[in-house]
Structures are given as structure tokens and as C-alpha cells.
TrEMBL record:
InterPro entries tied to this protein: PCD_sf, Pterin_deHydtase
Name the record gives this protein: 4a-hydroxytetrahydrobiopterin dehydratase
Protein family according to the UniProt entry: Belongs to the pterin-4-alpha-carbinolamine dehydratase family.
Top-level class of the enzyme under EC nomenclature: lyase
Lineage of producing organism: Bacteria, Pseudomonadati, Bacteroidota, Chitinophagia, Chitinophagales
Length: 81
């Protein structure tokens, strides 16, 4: 997997790009993220095109800012790679 290897804080969102071998790998990752997000009751804004997944995290409940919940989900997502 290729990626920019870190989350950045852009416009009150944590953002990281992920690039996989193909769509199958990207979607398998998204499935793992979805299950983790549901367990944490915290959900990503994300886009997927073929092998690329971009994830943006913030907390709507706190007024669309980055909170500890976003950092926790970002860490959990990294642990899925
Ligand atoms: C009711 C439910 O707990 C809330 O809507 C949760 C669900 N998932 C969420 N996900 C994100 N990213 N931000 C939230 O504020 C949020 N709130």
C-alpha cells in the first residue's frame, strides 16, 4: 500500500490518503474501517475511486471540529492497515 503516511489537520478535519493495489484491497480496507467506526459510534466522511481512499474526520456533535474522538478513530484506522 502507498500512502502519505500521516494524517494532516486541514480545515478542521483530520485527513489521510490511502492507495492500495486495486479496488478489492481498497474496499476490503473500507469494510474493516466501517466495522470499527460502527463499534466506536464515530463515522468517517470518505471518498473512494478505484484503489484510492481518502478519509476526513471531524466531530459534527461538537460543531465540526477535530476532537479526541477523531484522533482515536484515526489511530484505530492506522491499526487496520
Ligand atoms: C448519535 C450518534 O452518536 C452521533 O450522531 C455520532 C455518530 N457518528 C459520528 N461521527 C462523526 N464523525 N461525528 C459525529 O459527531 C458523530 N456523531
Amino acid at each position: 500500500m502507498q500512502n502519505n503516511n500521516m494524517w494532516t489537520n486541514e480545515n478542521n478535519q483530520l485527513h489521510r490518503s490511502f492507495q492500495f493495489k486495486d479496488f478489492r484491497e481498497a474496499f476490503a480496507f473500507m469494510t474493516r474501517v466501517a466495522l470499527t467506526a460502527e463499534k466506536m459510534d464515530h463515522h468517517p466522511y470518505w471518498t473512494n475511486v478505484y484503489n484510492k481512499v481518502d478519509i476526513y474526520l471531524n466531530t459534527h456533535d461538537a460543531g465540526n471540529i477535530v476532537t479526541a474522538k477523531d484522533h482515536a478513530l484515526a489511530k484505530a484506522i492506522d491499526d487496520l492497515l
